[in-house]
């Protein structure tokens, strides 16, 4: 009986494998923008940055995510 349970468990994993690999491929890339300046001093760069991504075929929230990090002048 153990042999049958093992074989059906392996068979189930083989059937589920393609679904799992497709699920991993649906993740969207994350692009980071890191600036040493305060956020308000670099705000004018965000829109052109997003426009450049859009020109390259990336639309924020659809096929790319952006993470913004501002060091606020702290270089450490």
Describe this structure in words.
- The protein is α+β, with helices and mostly antiparallel strands.
- The protein has one domain.
- The protein is 54% helix and 16% strand.
- The protein is built from 2 helices and 2 strands.
- It has helices at residues 2-25, 39-55; strands at residues 30-35, 65-70.
- A two-stranded parallel sheet has the order 1-2.
- Helix 2 (39-55) links the parallel strand 1 (30-35) and strand 2.
- The mean pLDDT is 77.
Give the tags.
elongated, two-stranded parallel ribbon, 76 residues, 2 strands, alpha+beta
- What count of domains describes the coordinates? 1
- Please outline the major beta sheet: 2 strands, parallel
Helix content: 40-55%
Tell me what portion of residues adopts beta-strand conformation: 15-25%
Shape: elongated
Q: Stretches where pLDDT falls below 50 for ≥5 residues?
A: none
Strand order of the largest sheet: 1-2
Please report the number of helical segments: 2
Radius of gyration: 22 Å
């Amino acid at each position: 009986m153990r042999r049958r349970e093992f074989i059906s468990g392996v068979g189930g994993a083989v059937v589920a494998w393609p679904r799992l690999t497709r699920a991993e491929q649906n993740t969207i890339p994350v692009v980071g923008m890191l600036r040493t300046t305060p956020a308000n001093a670099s705000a004018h760069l965000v829109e052109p940055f997003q426009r450049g991504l859009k020109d390259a075929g990336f639309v924020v929230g659809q096929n790319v995510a952006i993470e913004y990090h501002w060091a606020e002048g702290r270089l450490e």
